[in-house]
Write a structure and sequence with these properties.
Elements: H1 15-23, H2 26-47, H3 61-75, H4 84-98, H5 104-119, E1 128-135, E2 141-148, E3 151-155, E4 161-165, H6 167-174, H7 181-197, H8 201-231, H9 241-273, H10 277-319, H11 331-340, H12 344-359, H13 369-376, H14 406-415, E5 423-424, H15 425-435, H16 439-449, H17 455-460, E6 465-470, E7 487-492, E8 499-500, E9 503-504
Helix pairs in contact: 2-3, 3-4, 3-5, 3-6, 4-5, 6-8, 7-8, 7-9, 8-10, 9-10, 15-16
Length: about 500
Protein backbone atom coordinates (compact mmCIF):
# COMPACT_ATOMS: atom_id res chain seq x y z
CA UNK A 1 0.00 0.00 0.00
CA UNK A 2 1.14 3.56 -0.76
CA UNK A 3 1.25 5.81 2.33
CA UNK A 4 -0.57 9.15 2.18
CA UNK A 5 1.68 11.89 0.91
CA UNK A 6 3.86 9.57 -1.13
CA UNK A 7 4.30 10.77 -4.68
CA UNK A 8 3.62 8.54 -7.64
CA UNK A 9 6.89 8.09 -9.54
CA UNK A 10 7.71 6.36 -12.80
CA UNK A 11 9.65 3.11 -12.46
CA UNK A 12 13.32 3.42 -13.15
CA UNK A 13 13.81 2.43 -16.78
CA UNK A 14 17.03 2.72 -18.67
CA UNK A 15 17.21 4.38 -22.08
CA UNK A 16 18.32 1.13 -23.71
CA UNK A 17 15.16 -0.58 -22.45
CA UNK A 18 13.05 2.21 -23.93
CA UNK A 19 14.83 1.78 -27.25
CA UNK A 20 14.49 -1.97 -27.30
CA UNK A 21 10.97 -2.06 -25.94
CA UNK A 22 9.16 0.84 -27.55
CA UNK A 23 11.09 3.06 -29.89
CA UNK A 24 12.59 0.42 -32.18
CA UNK A 25 9.18 -0.94 -33.16
CA UNK A 26 8.82 -2.65 -36.52
CA UNK A 27 5.07 -2.48 -36.19
CA UNK A 28 5.29 1.30 -36.16
CA UNK A 29 7.17 1.26 -39.47
CA UNK A 30 4.52 -1.00 -40.98
CA UNK A 31 1.75 1.34 -39.86
CA UNK A 32 3.63 4.28 -41.34
CA UNK A 33 3.91 2.43 -44.64
CA UNK A 34 0.19 1.69 -44.49
CA UNK A 35 -0.50 5.41 -44.09
CA UNK A 36 1.89 6.17 -46.95
CA UNK A 37 -0.12 3.88 -49.28
CA UNK A 38 -3.28 5.87 -48.55
CA UNK A 39 -1.59 9.24 -49.09
CA UNK A 40 -2.16 9.32 -52.89
CA UNK A 41 -5.88 8.84 -52.27
CA UNK A 42 -6.03 11.78 -49.85
CA UNK A 43 -4.02 13.90 -52.30
CA UNK A 44 -6.82 13.51 -54.81
CA UNK A 45 -9.27 15.30 -52.49
CA UNK A 46 -6.65 17.95 -51.73
CA UNK A 47 -6.09 18.71 -55.41
CA UNK A 48 -9.61 18.40 -56.77
CA UNK A 49 -10.35 22.09 -56.14
CA UNK A 50 -7.58 23.05 -58.57
CA UNK A 51 -9.24 21.36 -61.57
CA UNK A 52 -10.12 23.99 -64.16
CA UNK A 53 -12.45 21.87 -66.30
CA UNK A 54 -15.07 21.12 -63.60
CA UNK A 55 -16.21 22.04 -60.10
CA UNK A 56 -14.95 18.82 -58.52
CA UNK A 57 -15.79 19.71 -54.93
CA UNK A 58 -18.94 17.58 -55.22
CA UNK A 59 -16.91 14.40 -55.74
CA UNK A 60 -15.28 12.31 -53.03
CA UNK A 61 -12.11 11.42 -54.91
CA UNK A 62 -10.70 9.05 -52.27
CA UNK A 63 -13.85 6.96 -52.39
CA UNK A 64 -13.71 6.89 -56.21
CA UNK A 65 -10.06 5.84 -56.00
CA UNK A 66 -10.88 2.96 -53.65
CA UNK A 67 -13.67 1.87 -55.97
CA UNK A 68 -11.23 2.04 -58.90
CA UNK A 69 -8.71 -0.22 -57.15
CA UNK A 70 -11.56 -2.57 -56.29
CA UNK A 71 -12.67 -2.85 -59.94
CA UNK A 72 -9.13 -3.45 -61.17
CA UNK A 73 -8.48 -6.12 -58.54
CA UNK A 74 -11.68 -8.01 -59.33
CA UNK A 75 -10.95 -7.94 -63.08
CA UNK A 76 -7.42 -9.34 -62.66
CA UNK A 77 -6.52 -12.92 -63.43
CA UNK A 78 -3.14 -14.64 -63.62
CA UNK A 79 -2.20 -13.55 -67.15
CA UNK A 80 -4.06 -10.33 -67.83
CA UNK A 81 -5.76 -7.52 -65.96
CA UNK A 82 -8.37 -4.81 -66.37
CA UNK A 83 -9.02 -2.76 -69.48
CA UNK A 84 -8.78 1.04 -69.04
CA UNK A 85 -12.07 1.81 -70.78
CA UNK A 86 -13.91 -0.98 -68.96
CA UNK A 87 -12.73 0.31 -65.57
CA UNK A 88 -13.91 3.84 -66.38
CA UNK A 89 -17.26 2.47 -67.57
CA UNK A 90 -17.75 0.58 -64.30
CA UNK A 91 -16.89 3.71 -62.32
CA UNK A 92 -19.56 5.87 -63.99
CA UNK A 93 -22.57 4.70 -61.89
CA UNK A 94 -20.63 5.28 -58.65
CA UNK A 95 -19.45 8.73 -59.79
CA UNK A 96 -22.91 9.67 -61.07
CA UNK A 97 -24.42 8.80 -57.67
CA UNK A 98 -22.23 11.48 -56.05
CA UNK A 99 -23.22 14.21 -58.53
CA UNK A 100 -26.36 13.15 -60.40
CA UNK A 101 -26.98 16.64 -61.80
CA UNK A 102 -23.67 16.70 -63.72
CA UNK A 103 -23.29 15.52 -67.30
CA UNK A 104 -22.11 12.02 -68.22
CA UNK A 105 -19.07 13.46 -70.01
CA UNK A 106 -17.90 15.00 -66.75
CA UNK A 107 -18.38 11.70 -64.91
CA UNK A 108 -16.21 9.97 -67.50
CA UNK A 109 -13.54 12.66 -67.22
CA UNK A 110 -13.49 12.39 -63.41
CA UNK A 111 -13.05 8.63 -63.67
CA UNK A 112 -10.15 9.01 -66.12
CA UNK A 113 -8.53 11.66 -63.92
CA UNK A 114 -8.67 9.42 -60.84
CA UNK A 115 -7.38 6.43 -62.82
CA UNK A 116 -4.46 8.43 -64.28
CA UNK A 117 -3.50 9.67 -60.81
CA UNK A 118 -3.53 6.14 -59.37
CA UNK A 119 -1.22 5.08 -62.22
CA UNK A 120 0.73 8.32 -61.55
CA UNK A 121 0.84 9.31 -65.20
CA UNK A 122 3.38 12.03 -65.88
CA UNK A 123 6.24 10.72 -63.74
CA UNK A 124 9.31 8.88 -64.99
CA UNK A 125 8.76 5.56 -63.19
CA UNK A 126 5.05 6.10 -62.43
CA UNK A 127 5.61 5.38 -58.76
CA UNK A 128 4.95 7.11 -55.45
CA UNK A 129 7.52 7.93 -52.78
CA UNK A 130 6.86 8.76 -49.12
CA UNK A 131 9.42 9.45 -46.39
CA UNK A 132 8.91 7.91 -42.94
CA UNK A 133 10.98 7.67 -39.77
CA UNK A 134 12.53 4.56 -38.28
CA UNK A 135 14.48 4.00 -35.06
CA UNK A 136 17.11 1.29 -35.29
CA UNK A 137 18.34 -0.96 -32.49
CA UNK A 138 20.93 1.65 -31.46
CA UNK A 139 18.30 4.33 -30.94
CA UNK A 140 19.27 6.33 -34.04
CA UNK A 141 16.35 7.98 -35.82
CA UNK A 142 16.63 7.60 -39.59
CA UNK A 143 14.51 8.86 -42.44
CA UNK A 144 13.77 6.29 -45.08
CA UNK A 145 12.07 6.49 -48.45
CA UNK A 146 9.23 4.09 -49.22
CA UNK A 147 8.67 3.60 -52.98
CA UNK A 148 5.46 1.93 -54.07
CA UNK A 149 2.89 1.77 -56.85
CA UNK A 150 -0.85 1.29 -56.70
CA UNK A 151 -1.84 0.50 -60.29
CA UNK A 152 0.61 -0.59 -62.98
CA UNK A 153 0.27 -0.97 -66.75
CA UNK A 154 1.50 -4.12 -68.45
CA UNK A 155 1.45 -5.21 -72.08
CA UNK A 156 -0.27 -8.42 -73.13
CA UNK A 157 1.19 -10.74 -75.82
CA UNK A 158 -1.39 -9.41 -78.28
CA UNK A 159 -0.13 -5.84 -77.78
CA UNK A 160 -2.99 -4.61 -75.59
CA UNK A 161 -2.16 -2.66 -72.40
CA UNK A 162 -4.01 -3.65 -69.23
CA UNK A 163 -4.03 -2.64 -65.56
CA UNK A 164 -3.02 -4.63 -62.51
CA UNK A 165 -3.27 -3.75 -58.83
CA UNK A 166 -0.08 -4.09 -56.77
CA UNK A 167 0.25 -5.64 -53.33
CA UNK A 168 0.22 -2.17 -51.80
CA UNK A 169 -3.08 -1.39 -53.52
CA UNK A 170 -4.65 -4.63 -52.29
CA UNK A 171 -3.41 -3.89 -48.78
CA UNK A 172 -5.11 -0.49 -49.00
CA UNK A 173 -8.36 -2.31 -49.72
CA UNK A 174 -8.11 -4.64 -46.72
CA UNK A 175 -6.48 -2.12 -44.37
CA UNK A 176 -3.17 -3.88 -43.71
CA UNK A 177 0.37 -3.97 -45.06
CA UNK A 178 3.03 -6.64 -45.45
CA UNK A 179 0.86 -9.31 -43.86
CA UNK A 180 1.44 -13.00 -44.42
CA UNK A 181 -0.85 -13.93 -47.28
CA UNK A 182 -1.65 -17.47 -46.20
CA UNK A 183 -2.37 -16.68 -42.53
CA UNK A 184 -4.41 -13.64 -43.52
CA UNK A 185 -6.43 -15.74 -45.95
CA UNK A 186 -7.13 -18.44 -43.36
CA UNK A 187 -8.23 -15.79 -40.88
CA UNK A 188 -10.53 -14.26 -43.48
CA UNK A 189 -12.08 -17.66 -44.25
CA UNK A 190 -12.68 -18.41 -40.56
CA UNK A 191 -14.21 -14.98 -40.06
CA UNK A 192 -16.41 -15.46 -43.10
CA UNK A 193 -17.65 -18.84 -41.91
CA UNK A 194 -18.47 -17.51 -38.44
CA UNK A 195 -20.36 -14.54 -39.85
CA UNK A 196 -22.42 -16.81 -42.10
CA UNK A 197 -23.27 -19.17 -39.26
CA UNK A 198 -24.40 -16.20 -37.16
CA UNK A 199 -26.52 -14.83 -39.98
CA UNK A 200 -24.62 -11.55 -40.36
CA UNK A 201 -24.60 -11.54 -44.15
CA UNK A 202 -23.77 -7.84 -44.50
CA UNK A 203 -20.52 -8.28 -42.57
CA UNK A 204 -19.96 -11.63 -44.29
CA UNK A 205 -19.95 -9.91 -47.68
CA UNK A 206 -17.10 -7.63 -46.58
CA UNK A 207 -15.14 -10.60 -45.22
CA UNK A 208 -15.72 -12.53 -48.47
CA UNK A 209 -14.43 -9.61 -50.54
CA UNK A 210 -11.31 -9.43 -48.35
CA UNK A 211 -10.76 -13.17 -48.82
CA UNK A 212 -10.98 -12.65 -52.58
CA UNK A 213 -8.43 -9.83 -52.42
CA UNK A 214 -6.04 -12.17 -50.59
CA UNK A 215 -6.54 -14.79 -53.30
CA UNK A 216 -5.61 -12.23 -55.94
CA UNK A 217 -2.57 -11.19 -53.89
CA UNK A 218 -1.36 -14.79 -53.63
CA UNK A 219 -1.59 -15.17 -57.41
CA UNK A 220 0.16 -11.83 -57.90
CA UNK A 221 3.06 -12.99 -55.73
CA UNK A 222 3.51 -16.13 -57.82
CA UNK A 223 3.19 -14.18 -61.08
CA UNK A 224 5.91 -11.75 -59.97
CA UNK A 225 8.25 -14.66 -59.15
CA UNK A 226 7.65 -16.27 -62.54
CA UNK A 227 8.18 -12.97 -64.36
CA UNK A 228 11.47 -12.52 -62.53
CA UNK A 229 12.42 -16.08 -63.53
CA UNK A 230 11.72 -15.35 -67.19
CA UNK A 231 14.06 -12.36 -66.99
CA UNK A 232 16.81 -14.11 -65.04
CA UNK A 233 16.57 -17.50 -63.31
CA UNK A 234 19.33 -16.45 -60.93
CA UNK A 235 17.15 -13.68 -59.48
CA UNK A 236 14.83 -16.22 -57.80
CA UNK A 237 15.87 -18.88 -55.29
CA UNK A 238 14.62 -22.06 -56.94
CA UNK A 239 16.78 -24.19 -54.69
CA UNK A 240 14.99 -23.57 -51.40
CA UNK A 241 12.59 -20.64 -51.40
CA UNK A 242 10.41 -21.42 -54.42
CA UNK A 243 9.96 -25.19 -53.77
CA UNK A 244 8.87 -24.39 -50.21
CA UNK A 245 6.54 -21.69 -51.47
CA UNK A 246 4.99 -23.98 -54.10
CA UNK A 247 4.46 -26.80 -51.59
CA UNK A 248 2.90 -24.49 -49.03
CA UNK A 249 0.75 -22.83 -51.69
CA UNK A 250 -0.59 -26.16 -52.96
CA UNK A 251 -1.34 -27.27 -49.38
CA UNK A 252 -3.02 -23.93 -48.77
CA UNK A 253 -5.20 -24.28 -51.88
CA UNK A 254 -6.20 -27.82 -50.92
CA UNK A 255 -7.44 -26.68 -47.51
CA UNK A 256 -9.10 -23.60 -49.02
CA UNK A 257 -11.03 -25.74 -51.49
CA UNK A 258 -12.55 -27.75 -48.66
CA UNK A 259 -13.35 -24.67 -46.58
CA UNK A 260 -14.78 -22.63 -49.43
CA UNK A 261 -16.96 -25.46 -50.72
CA UNK A 262 -18.37 -25.92 -47.22
CA UNK A 263 -18.95 -22.16 -46.93
CA UNK A 264 -20.57 -22.09 -50.36
CA UNK A 265 -22.93 -24.88 -49.28
CA UNK A 266 -23.95 -22.95 -46.16
CA UNK A 267 -24.51 -19.74 -48.10
CA UNK A 268 -26.61 -21.57 -50.68
CA UNK A 269 -28.79 -23.02 -47.93
CA UNK A 270 -29.13 -19.57 -46.34
CA UNK A 271 -30.10 -18.09 -49.71
CA UNK A 272 -32.71 -20.75 -50.44
CA UNK A 273 -34.26 -20.67 -46.96
CA UNK A 274 -34.29 -16.87 -46.60
CA UNK A 275 -37.71 -15.22 -46.75
CA UNK A 276 -36.50 -11.65 -46.49
CA UNK A 277 -35.76 -10.18 -49.92
CA UNK A 278 -32.74 -8.21 -48.70
CA UNK A 279 -31.27 -11.24 -46.95
CA UNK A 280 -31.79 -13.39 -50.05
CA UNK A 281 -30.05 -10.76 -52.20
CA UNK A 282 -27.05 -10.56 -49.85
CA UNK A 283 -26.79 -14.34 -49.77
CA UNK A 284 -26.85 -14.46 -53.58
CA UNK A 285 -24.03 -11.90 -53.72
CA UNK A 286 -22.02 -14.04 -51.30
CA UNK A 287 -22.56 -17.09 -53.52
CA UNK A 288 -21.09 -15.19 -56.49
CA UNK A 289 -18.09 -13.93 -54.49
CA UNK A 290 -17.18 -17.31 -52.96
CA UNK A 291 -17.73 -18.99 -56.34
CA UNK A 292 -15.29 -16.49 -57.85
CA UNK A 293 -12.77 -17.34 -55.09
CA UNK A 294 -13.05 -21.04 -55.95
CA UNK A 295 -12.53 -20.27 -59.64
CA UNK A 296 -9.45 -18.17 -58.87
CA UNK A 297 -8.04 -20.94 -56.66
CA UNK A 298 -8.49 -23.41 -59.54
CA UNK A 299 -6.58 -21.12 -61.87
CA UNK A 300 -3.87 -20.55 -59.28
CA UNK A 301 -3.51 -24.30 -58.73
CA UNK A 302 -2.88 -24.89 -62.45
CA UNK A 303 -0.22 -22.16 -62.44
CA UNK A 304 1.45 -23.61 -59.38
CA UNK A 305 1.63 -27.05 -60.96
CA UNK A 306 3.19 -25.59 -64.13
CA UNK A 307 5.70 -23.40 -62.26
CA UNK A 308 8.38 -26.11 -62.15
CA UNK A 309 8.13 -26.70 -65.90
CA UNK A 310 8.38 -22.94 -66.47
CA UNK A 311 11.60 -22.79 -64.42
CA UNK A 312 13.19 -25.71 -66.30
CA UNK A 313 12.24 -24.28 -69.69
CA UNK A 314 13.61 -20.84 -68.79
CA UNK A 315 16.80 -22.36 -67.40
CA UNK A 316 17.44 -24.18 -70.68
CA UNK A 317 16.52 -21.16 -72.78
CA UNK A 318 18.71 -18.72 -70.86
CA UNK A 319 21.63 -21.13 -70.63
CA UNK A 320 21.82 -21.76 -74.37
CA UNK A 321 20.50 -18.48 -75.71
CA UNK A 322 23.99 -17.01 -76.14
CA UNK A 323 25.11 -13.46 -75.46
CA UNK A 324 22.49 -10.69 -75.63
CA UNK A 325 21.94 -9.20 -79.04
CA UNK A 326 22.04 -5.47 -79.71
CA UNK A 327 19.66 -3.59 -81.96
CA UNK A 328 20.81 -3.23 -85.56
CA UNK A 329 21.79 0.11 -87.05
CA UNK A 330 19.94 1.71 -89.93
CA UNK A 331 22.95 2.25 -92.22
CA UNK A 332 21.00 4.34 -94.70
CA UNK A 333 19.09 6.62 -92.33
CA UNK A 334 21.54 6.82 -89.43
CA UNK A 335 24.92 6.70 -91.20
CA UNK A 336 24.81 7.33 -94.95
CA UNK A 337 22.31 10.21 -95.20
CA UNK A 338 23.76 12.29 -92.30
CA UNK A 339 27.30 11.72 -93.61
CA UNK A 340 26.44 12.86 -97.13
CA UNK A 341 25.08 16.11 -95.74
CA UNK A 342 28.45 16.95 -94.10
CA UNK A 343 31.40 18.67 -95.76
CA UNK A 344 34.21 16.34 -96.85
CA UNK A 345 36.54 17.51 -94.09
CA UNK A 346 33.91 16.76 -91.42
CA UNK A 347 32.73 13.47 -92.99
CA UNK A 348 36.15 11.78 -93.03
CA UNK A 349 36.32 11.12 -89.30
CA UNK A 350 32.87 9.43 -88.84
CA UNK A 351 33.44 7.36 -91.98
CA UNK A 352 36.80 6.12 -90.65
CA UNK A 353 35.27 5.26 -87.27
CA UNK A 354 32.42 3.39 -88.97
CA UNK A 355 34.73 1.22 -91.07
CA UNK A 356 37.01 0.57 -88.11
CA UNK A 357 34.04 -0.62 -86.07
CA UNK A 358 32.33 -2.56 -88.86
CA UNK A 359 35.44 -4.44 -90.00
CA UNK A 360 35.81 -6.03 -86.57
CA UNK A 361 38.62 -8.14 -85.23
CA UNK A 362 40.44 -10.90 -87.09
CA UNK A 363 38.88 -14.27 -86.34
CA UNK A 364 41.51 -16.83 -85.33
CA UNK A 365 41.77 -19.91 -87.52
CA UNK A 366 41.99 -22.20 -84.46
CA UNK A 367 39.77 -21.61 -81.36
CA UNK A 368 41.42 -21.02 -78.03
CA UNK A 369 41.81 -23.86 -75.55
CA UNK A 370 39.24 -22.43 -73.13
CA UNK A 371 36.65 -22.00 -75.89
CA UNK A 372 37.32 -25.52 -77.19
CA UNK A 373 36.91 -27.06 -73.72
CA UNK A 374 33.70 -25.11 -73.20
CA UNK A 375 32.28 -26.40 -76.48
CA UNK A 376 33.25 -29.99 -75.69
CA UNK A 377 31.79 -29.89 -72.16
CA UNK A 378 28.49 -28.31 -73.21
CA UNK A 379 25.66 -30.68 -72.16
CA UNK A 380 23.78 -32.38 -74.90
CA UNK A 381 20.19 -31.25 -75.49
CA UNK A 382 17.52 -33.36 -73.87
CA UNK A 383 15.98 -35.94 -76.11
CA UNK A 384 12.27 -36.09 -76.53
CA UNK A 385 10.56 -38.57 -74.28
CA UNK A 386 9.75 -41.89 -75.92
CA UNK A 387 6.08 -42.35 -76.66
CA UNK A 388 6.10 -46.13 -76.87
CA UNK A 389 6.28 -48.60 -79.70
CA UNK A 390 5.80 -47.08 -83.13
CA UNK A 391 3.08 -49.00 -85.01
CA UNK A 392 3.84 -50.44 -88.41
CA UNK A 393 2.22 -48.27 -91.06
CA UNK A 394 -0.18 -49.81 -93.55
CA UNK A 395 1.28 -48.98 -96.92
CA UNK A 396 -1.05 -48.41 -99.86
CA UNK A 397 0.15 -49.50 -103.31
CA UNK A 398 1.29 -46.44 -105.26
CA UNK A 399 -0.90 -45.15 -107.99
CA UNK A 400 0.27 -45.35 -111.58
CA UNK A 401 1.40 -41.85 -112.56
CA UNK A 402 2.31 -42.59 -116.19
CA UNK A 403 0.04 -40.64 -118.51
CA UNK A 404 1.01 -42.66 -121.59
CA UNK A 405 1.05 -46.42 -121.81
CA UNK A 406 3.98 -48.56 -122.86
CA UNK A 407 2.20 -49.32 -126.17
CA UNK A 408 1.91 -45.60 -126.94
CA UNK A 409 5.62 -45.07 -126.19
CA UNK A 410 6.49 -47.99 -128.56
CA UNK A 411 4.42 -46.48 -131.39
CA UNK A 412 6.03 -43.08 -130.81
CA UNK A 413 9.51 -44.62 -131.02
CA UNK A 414 8.60 -46.29 -134.35
CA UNK A 415 7.23 -43.04 -135.82
CA UNK A 416 10.24 -40.98 -134.73
CA UNK A 417 12.81 -43.49 -135.96
CA UNK A 418 13.93 -41.50 -139.05
CA UNK A 419 17.39 -42.75 -140.01
CA UNK A 420 17.37 -41.75 -143.71
CA UNK A 421 14.83 -39.14 -144.85
CA UNK A 422 13.63 -36.29 -142.58
CA UNK A 423 9.88 -35.85 -142.15
CA UNK A 424 7.58 -32.98 -141.30
CA UNK A 425 5.88 -32.84 -137.92
CA UNK A 426 2.49 -32.38 -139.57
CA UNK A 427 2.77 -35.70 -141.36
CA UNK A 428 3.85 -37.50 -138.22
CA UNK A 429 0.89 -36.05 -136.31
CA UNK A 430 -1.60 -37.18 -138.94
CA UNK A 431 -0.12 -40.69 -138.95
CA UNK A 432 -0.17 -40.82 -135.17
CA UNK A 433 -3.88 -39.92 -135.02
CA UNK A 434 -4.68 -42.86 -137.27
CA UNK A 435 -3.09 -45.17 -134.72
CA UNK A 436 -4.30 -43.50 -131.49
CA UNK A 437 -5.79 -40.00 -130.90
CA UNK A 438 -3.67 -39.59 -127.74
CA UNK A 439 -0.49 -40.58 -129.55
CA UNK A 440 -0.35 -37.26 -131.46
CA UNK A 441 0.24 -35.30 -128.23
CA UNK A 442 3.13 -37.59 -127.22
CA UNK A 443 4.73 -37.19 -130.66
CA UNK A 444 4.40 -33.39 -130.43
CA UNK A 445 6.02 -33.33 -126.97
CA UNK A 446 8.97 -35.43 -128.10
CA UNK A 447 9.39 -33.24 -131.19
CA UNK A 448 9.56 -30.11 -129.04
CA UNK A 449 12.07 -31.79 -126.73
CA UNK A 450 14.29 -32.67 -129.72
CA UNK A 451 14.37 -29.02 -130.92
CA UNK A 452 17.33 -28.45 -128.58
CA UNK A 453 18.60 -31.97 -127.88
CA UNK A 454 21.12 -32.87 -125.20
CA UNK A 455 23.58 -35.03 -127.11
CA UNK A 456 25.71 -35.55 -124.02
CA UNK A 457 22.74 -37.05 -122.17
CA UNK A 458 22.14 -39.47 -125.04
CA UNK A 459 25.81 -40.51 -124.95
CA UNK A 460 25.71 -41.09 -121.19
CA UNK A 461 22.58 -43.22 -121.60
CA UNK A 462 24.29 -45.38 -124.22
CA UNK A 463 22.06 -44.34 -127.17
CA UNK A 464 23.46 -44.71 -130.70
CA UNK A 465 21.25 -42.00 -132.23
CA UNK A 466 19.46 -38.79 -131.18
CA UNK A 467 16.31 -37.15 -132.56
CA UNK A 468 16.94 -33.64 -133.94
CA UNK A 469 14.29 -31.06 -134.94
CA UNK A 470 14.98 -28.08 -137.27
CA UNK A 471 12.78 -25.01 -137.87
CA UNK A 472 13.01 -23.89 -141.51
CA UNK A 473 10.25 -21.26 -141.21
CA UNK A 474 7.31 -23.41 -142.36
CA UNK A 475 4.11 -22.92 -140.33
CA UNK A 476 2.35 -25.92 -138.88
CA UNK A 477 -1.13 -26.51 -140.27
CA UNK A 478 -2.83 -28.73 -137.70
CA UNK A 479 -6.28 -28.81 -136.04
CA UNK A 480 -4.82 -29.22 -132.50
CA UNK A 481 -1.33 -27.68 -132.46
CA UNK A 482 0.22 -24.51 -133.86
CA UNK A 483 3.67 -23.07 -134.38
CA UNK A 484 6.45 -24.24 -136.69
CA UNK A 485 6.22 -27.34 -138.85
CA UNK A 486 9.52 -28.85 -137.69
CA UNK A 487 11.76 -31.10 -139.76
CA UNK A 488 12.59 -34.22 -137.75
CA UNK A 489 15.46 -36.61 -138.36
CA UNK A 490 17.57 -39.15 -136.46
CA UNK A 491 21.28 -38.33 -136.15
CA UNK A 492 23.77 -41.16 -135.55
CA UNK A 493 26.34 -40.81 -132.76
CA UNK A 494 29.89 -41.92 -133.56
CA UNK A 495 30.97 -43.21 -130.15
CA UNK A 496 34.47 -44.13 -131.30
CA UNK A 497 35.47 -40.48 -131.81
CA UNK A 498 33.40 -38.84 -129.06
CA UNK A 499 35.10 -37.78 -125.80
CA UNK A 500 33.21 -36.41 -122.77
CA UNK A 501 34.87 -34.93 -119.69
CA UNK A 502 38.29 -36.18 -120.67
CA UNK A 503 37.16 -39.82 -120.98
CA UNK A 504 36.67 -41.79 -124.24
CA UNK A 505 33.08 -42.95 -124.55
Amino acid sequence: MRAPGDRLTWPAVRDTELIGGGLADEGLARRLKALACTAPLHDLDARKAKLDWADATAYQMAEIALHTIDQVTIAMDFDTGADHHEVVRRLQPFIAAQAPSRKADEHVRVGRWVLDNLINVGTADRGFRRVYGHVDANGVYQRRAFDFKLLIELAAPDGEVYLRATDEAINVLVGALDTDVESAHIAAEVKLENLINRGRLADAKLAAEQARYRTVQYGETLRAKLDATRRDVRAVDWDTEMPEMLDSALSHIESRFRAENAILKNITIARDEAEDVDRKRRAAELVDIVGDCISRHTQLQSRLQAAGATFRAEQDRQQFSGPPQRATIDLFGQVLVPTLELPIADAVKPVERFFQGSSGLTIPAVPSLSALVSLLLRPAPERDKLVGEVPEPELVPPETLDYYSDEQWRHADELLDLPEVPRRLSGLLAEAREIDPQLARLVALRALHSYSPEVAAAVRQGDDRALIAIDDGTLLDDVEFGGADLLLASAFIDRSELEISGETA
